Amino acid sequence: MSKKNIFSIILSIILSLIIGFLIYKQIIYPTIIPMVIKGGASLFADWTVILNASDCYQKGYDVYLNNPCDYWNRKHVYGEILLSIPFIKTYPKFYYFYFPIIIGFLFIYILSYTLFDHKNIKFFISSLIFIFSLPVLLAIERSNIDLIIFIFMFLIAKFNNYFLKYFLIVTSSVVKFYPILLSAIFLYEKNKKNLLINIILILFMIFIIMVFQYESLKKIFNNTQQFTGYGYGLYEFSFFGFFNFFQSLNINIDGKNFNWIKYIYATIFILIPFIVLNFFKILKFDEFIDSSNIEENLNFENKLYFLASTIIIFCYFSFSNFIYREIFFLGLVPSILMSLSKSESKVVLFYFYLLLSKFLLTSIFIYIYQNNIFELINPLMILIKHTVDLYLIFFVFNFYLKYISLFFRKFFLNFQI
Fold first, then answer.
1. Sequence-distant (≥ 6) Cβ neighbours of residue 401 within 8 angstroms
2. 113 plus 247 within the same structural domain
3. Residues 41-50, mean pLDDT to the nearest whole number
4. pTM to 2 decimals?
5. How would residue 417 be classed by pLDDT, with cut points 50, 70 and 90?
6. Domain containing 35: what range?
7. Of the residues 128, 158, 188, which one is the last residue of a structural domain?
8. What ranges in 123-188 are assigned the alpha helix state H?
9. Dihedral angle, C-alpha 15, 19, 20, 26, nearest 10 °
10. What is the DSSP-derived secondary structure letter of residue 117?
11. Using an 8 Å Cβ cutoff, are 70 and 52 in contact?
12. Which pLDDT does position 287 carry in this prediction?
């Protein structure tokens, strides 16, 4: 076993114990909104709703319409495959307690493996900020299924076994539809014939499975609000969520309407900066592409970056999300850190600190908001949080467009079957 693996295992054990302590002593509440049952917080609530749905399904209920086995009567909004988990009644303690702990530990191990370098402690504090951020703690406390999808994403980027890739992509896609985007990994296939075959095959396999689950999918999409992981305020990660919040924001002082302030804010902090950055090309986005050599270098970090950015962009512009989906931003970090180790590019360094600031501000703002420390500035904090999200997506999207343009240019110039 390599020193890196040993270091990652030891670190992940330490971090897991600290996070476990924070949850056990309920220190994370009410910053993390608890799912309360009989006056106490319900642990792993996003995972237990799946197990409860499976229980009701076995009893003959249509859990896509009604799930009385769940304390909050949350409907099932995932694929049918999760309704057939075996031996839940035989080993309830394993499924309800030990399994989510195992998933949480694997997730923390992956973060330890990808974010921390035992040879370089330069970004150690920064990595701890990522680990103990609210999106990460929320995902672990709820044992949200996005943890499993993140683990799958890591395995798909890390290993080159085709059977493993097919299995993980198909399995995750029939659980939640957006992981089908993980099939973008085949764009790293140098042989164009194999690329087309892989994409067609994976899409065909998922199509067949979807056909058999057509009725279930219709019911899932009827539960749009729950299905999309509907967030709100500081707990939301979504372009349309930002737009709706901004539109509905009313600034009244002493009975007078001051809504013009929000339009000045949008002009100064959003519109003008985006115009300047786009048209005057102050930021040289090619620097990140060049330093990471993402076009030619088929290493794990670049693959993980590409998969994570694909999911982030799609989810941000497609539907509303709870902030636990922001954990996919952490898939960008290894490639960024690798680029910084090769070059002190200002644009890459700014990119990294913007990403770090996003997690830090989100955590601080939610703490202030949930603990009612400065209620008057709650709307301002929500506005700033969404503005930082928008800036970060701007970076991710620009780098993504650069990569895609490089790929297609190379693909069509060298197309051979």
1. none
2. no
3. 90
4. 0.91
5. very low
6. 3-158
7. 158
8. 124-131, 134-142, 146-158, 162-175
9. 160
10. B
11. yes
12. 61
User: Do 110 and 240 belong together in one domain?
Assistant: no
| Region 236-257 average pLDDT | 87
Assigned token pair, 359: 């997690």
Rounded to whole angstroms, what are the CA distances from 261 to 77, 276, 311, 316?
Answer: 40, 22, 34, 26
Q: Are residues 139 and 11 in the same domain?
A: yes
Within a domain: 347: yes
CA distance 76 to 144: 14
Instruction: Give the count of domains, the chain.
Output: 2
Residue 288: predicted pLDDT:
62
- Using alpha carbons, select from 318, 335, 340 the residue that is nearest to residue 396: 335
* Pairwise CA distance, residues 377 & 354, whole Å: 22
Answer yes or no: is 122 within a domain: yes
15 occurs within a structural domain = yes
User: CA–CA distance from 65 to each of 149, 211, 222, 357 (Å)?
Assistant: 25, 20, 9, 41
Which of 139, 158, 177 delimits the end of a domain?
158
Same domain, 236 and 148: no
Looking at the fold, whether 136 and 38 belong to one and the same domain comes out as yes
Closest listed residue to residue 308, CA positions, set 142, 83, 111: 111
- Per the structure block, which two tokens stand in for 219? 């019911």
- 208 lies in a domain? no
- Distance between first and last Cα of the chain: 41
Nearest residue to 304 (alpha-carbon basis) of 106, 171, 110? 110
Same domain, 34 and 127: yes
- Cis peptide before 30, with omega less than 30 degrees from 0? yes
- Counting residues of the chain whose pLDDT is more than 70, the rounded percentage is 87
Instruction: From 253, 234, 258, select the one nearest 326 (Cα to Cα).
Output: 234
